[in-house]
Amino acid sequence: AFHICCNIGRISGLSGRRIPRFHLQRAFFQAWLNEKFAPELLESKPEIIECVVEQLDHMEANLKRAKRGDLKVSIHRMEIERIRYVLSSYLRCRLVKIEKFFPHVLEKEKSRAEGEPSILSPEEFAFAKEYMANTEIYLKNVALKHMPPNLQKVSLLKSVPRPNLDSFVFLRVLERQENILVEPETDEQREYTIDLEEGSQHLIRYKTVAPLVASGAVQLI
Amino acid sequence: ISRQVLWCPSPHCYLGPFNPGLPVEVPVWLAINLKQRQKCRLIPPEWMDVEKLEEIRDQERKEDTFTPMPSPYYMELTKLLLNYASDNIPKADEIRTLVKETWDTRLAKLRLSADSFVRQQEAHAKLDNLTLMEINTTGTFLTQALDHMYKLRTNLQPSESAHSQDF
Prior knowledge:
The structure holds two protein chains of two kinds. By secondary structure, chain A is α+β, with helices and mostly antiparallel strands. Helix content of chain A is 52%, strand content 14%. Chain A has helices at 2-5, 21-37, 46-65, 71-100, 102-110, 122-142, 156-159, 206-215; strands at 10-12, 18-20, 168-173, 177-182, 192-196, 201-205, 218-220. In chain A, strands 6-3-7 form a three-stranded antiparallel beta sheet. In chain A, strand 1 and strand 2 (18-20) form a beta hairpin. In chain A, helix 3 (46-65) packs antiparallel against helix 4 (71-100) and helix 5 (102-110) crosses helix 6 (122-142). The radius of gyration of chain A is 22 Å and the shape is flat. Chain A starts with a helix and ends with a strand. The model of chain A is unreliable at 1-17 (pLDDT under 50). Chain B folds into two domains: 1-41, Ribosomal Protein L9, domain 1; 44-153, Methane Monooxygenase Hydroxylase, Chain G, domain 1 (Up-down Bundle), CATH 1.20.58.1020. Chain B has five helices and four strands. Chain B has helices at residues 28-36, 50-62, 74-84, 92-119, 132-154; strands at 3-7, 23-27, 41-43, 124-126. Chain B is mainly alpha-helical. Chain B has a three-stranded antiparallel beta sheet, with helices on one face. Classes of the chains: A alpha+beta, B mainly alpha. At the A-B interface, helix 4, strand 3 and strand 6 of A face helix 1, strand 4 and helix 5 of B. Strand 6 of chain A pairs antiparallel with strand 4 of chain B. Chain A: Keywords: Chromosome, DNA replication, Nucleus. Chain A: Residues 71-142 form the GINS subunit domain.
């Protein structure tokens, strides 16, 4: 879809990574779908988002220069709207998860090792911290300060539910994987391993395949 | 993103690849939009043909498992093309019926499989020949039901700290 309107062969994000146009679209849609169907907040993808935003800006600029009433103009406009929709959906999906799991998201970010990819963009991180602070103030003013002194503390980390990594997800395999362990559902069953063939589709617990989603070996659908 | 061939008859098409009278491949969303503006004619995919679809429908009814479909988006394409471009598609009504019959057969099989999946408390299923539209019809319901069952099951035994919430 990007190819109709885009004149740039390669796009470089602010981080300096060059991403070929076709791969950008695919990576972007992949990230969007994964985020929609994963029960937890996934790694943030700053290079993809930067490139997409740059792409949008470039297309808007092109549009301003184009002749009016051109068929091309309306097609470009539709393309811009489509990309905007996906971008907006992606960012909102992340915000919903941040709000839902805020103490765990912040905890994960705090305990992240050096060099490990971040799950929050700088803006998202600021948002999460603010959200946490606001929630604490709200709880304090509405209820906690009226409680007897020994009950005035609440651990948000303990009381806010964690994402359910045991939920089932549908996926499509992009890169063949061998010996994926399937854990038993009941005590009578035993665990077994399966191979994931490229192009096949599966229904399985998210926990087992979480690293494969992160690496791009499978796509959630 | 599915592609659709369309034919541009009018001289209004300035875009590079669009030459009046020559077929060109475009994404479906663009094809539908141009068709709505009466700038082109849509050419149906080659599987959208009565004999072919009859074969597919009969094959699906014969097998217990899911047979591969001519397009991963067969349902969406049928609906869109028949809604917006039925004048470009020969025997549109027959085609609509045939695709619907195939769809119904497949959904019935899907409901059966989902039922047995839940009953036997399976941990994994392979769904190769299912299209996205079919998966999404029951998918959310199925995964949420499985999640609920999981929660009920793991709360039956007092387990180690991991899942319980303490205050």
